[in-house]
Write a structure and sequence with these properties.
The protein is built from 15 helices and 14 strands. It is an alpha/beta fold. The chain starts with 7 loop residues before the first strand and ends with a strand. Bound molecules: NADP nicotinamide-adenine-dinucleotide phosphate. The site of NADP nicotinamide-adenine-dinucleotide phosphate (NAP) has 35 residues, from α1, α4, α8 and α14.
């Protein structure tokens, strides 16, 4: 809920996380508009160190543990939008969502955990609608580029043919970046939860799991599990790990926009590869990782000795030299082909994510008073305004080519 009476436009909660610290750097040099903001976390000394490292001594800080409902309520009462990077969200995220929904405080996060979003929808959507809190999940590399890329292509389809595009394929053409300990912890936690819970395994394969009750979608959706040569795009393709959240967010957007993309809309994501050998190698590598992660002793070994730990992630050099280039392909109702290109100028998961998440929160705080309370997706709530902000302030471009 946009209120001018609150002290801060945004509060960065989890400011000492790997992503949070990149956000602090971004905000420290951000002069494109006047914003009031504060940072928050559970550990005061870490917050003070982060302030000093970024010359942000003048920025207020707030102490709140993820389980401390009273402290989170006091924090929410000071913010128009709380941004949370405290994850895995399935482990630490619920109390903040509950408090935001209860206090009418807007919220953005980076979760890529569909099972957790589903649980939060079931528990707090009605509360958020009643209080006016606008909750936006997955406002980073998952799933802003996918959500806005599809939105932009569908707007073009509707403007030129009066009909939505029936089938959109997203293919990652180039990507350069790495993973952080927080992302790895979130992935391993989903694998662990799914290993124990057959109902959750069923839920995770449902492409419409995040759609509102009573949605009309029944279309079978392609789930790329192996390498293959794709005739129509003339590319080798392989599974894209983020498809598991991105595709679900895109279908929720369709539902929230009153089925604007059509009731039979098809959407699938994959990575492109230069050669078949590369596609098969990456597919087998990913498969081996998933199998290993599902076996407890191997999962523990990976987490302890091989993969990045919480707080670790790609180096500054990797962030600055990272990038992504995603293409959204369709054939319009009149037979013409159309493509949208979405590019970012930093590594996707951290350098670009930090900027996208900040801009989504600022967009919510400043540009979107008309959006009602409830659980939204980036495209359903912020669409063209966020596209414009990302191009202007975040090095992310979305264009028809
Ligand atoms: N959607 C995307 O594109 C995207 C991209 C990147 C990351 N992510 C997700 O974003 C999240 C953050 O990733 P990351 O690598 O930055 O994580 P990280 O470095 O491991 O940071 C986790 C943060 O959670 C805080 N935390 C843990 N338990 C807490 C508690 N009980 N109370 C308060 N704070 C607590 C930690 O506080 P301390 O600093 O005090 O330890 C830390 O700041 C993960 O869930 C990850 O999956 C998503």
């Amino acid at each position: 809920m946009t209120e001018t009476t609150k002290q801060f436009d945004i509060i960065v909660y989890g400011a000492t996380s790997f992503v949070g610290q990149i956000m602090l750097e971004y905000l420290a040099s951000y002069q494109d508009e006047t914003i009031s903001w504060a940072m928050a976390g559970r550990n005061e000394q870490k917050l003070l160190d982060a302030k000093q490292a970024n010359n942000l001594e003048h920025i207020p800080h707030i102490i709140a543990d993820a389980d401390d409902e009273a402290a989170l309520t006091a924090m929410c009462n000071q913010a128009n939008v709380v941004i949370s990077t405290v994850g895995p969200y399935a482990l630490y995220g619920e109390t903040l969502v509950k408090v935001c929904a209860q206090t009418g405080t807007d919220y953005c996060d980076l979760t890529g955990e569909p099972q957790w979003i589903r649980a939060m929808l079931d528990k707090y959507e009605n509360t958020a609608k009643a209080s006016g809190a606008r909750i936006i999940n997955s406002a980073g590399f998952d799933s802003i580029p996918s959500d806005l890329g599809v939105y932009a292509l569908q707007q073009h389809a509707l403007a030129t043919t009066d009909k939505p595009a029936f089938h959109i394929k997203m293919r990652v053409r180039r990507i350069k970046g790495g993973a952080s300990g927080g992302t790895i912890a979130s992935m391993l936690n989903v694998v662990e939860e799914a290993g124990k819970n057959p109902a959750l395994r069923k839920l995770l394969v449902n492409p419409y799991v995040l759609c509102p009750e009573g949605h009309p979608f029944k279309q079978y959706q392609t789930n790329h599990k192996k390498a293959q040569f794709e005739e129509d795009t003339q590319m080798w393709i392989m599974p894209f790990i983020m498809a598991a959240i991105n595709e679900r967010i895109v279908h929720r957007t369709n539902a929230l926009l009153d089925n604007r993309y059509g009731e039979h809309f098809l959407y699938d994501e994959a990575m492109s590869a230069k050669k078949g050998l590369q596609a098969w190698g990456m597919t087998l590598g990913l498969g081996a990782f998933m199998v290993g992660a599902s076996i407890k002793p191997i999962r523990n070994l990976l987490a302890k000795h091989i993969l990045p730990k919480p707080g670790e992630g790609p180096s500054k050099h990797e962030q600055l030299n990272g990038m992504f280039d995603m293409r959204f392909y369709t054939t319009l109702d009149n037979g013409d082909k159309a493509t949208v290109k979405v590019c970012g100028d930093r590594d996707p998961g951290y350098g670009s994510t930090a900027k996208m998440l900040t801009q989504a929160a600022l967009c919510l705080a400043k540009d979107a008073p008309e959006v009602a309370g409830g659980f939204w997706t980036p495209a359903a709530a912020l669409n063209d305004k966020l596209i414009a902000r990302l191009a202007k302030h975040a090095g992310v471009t979305i264009e028809l080519i």
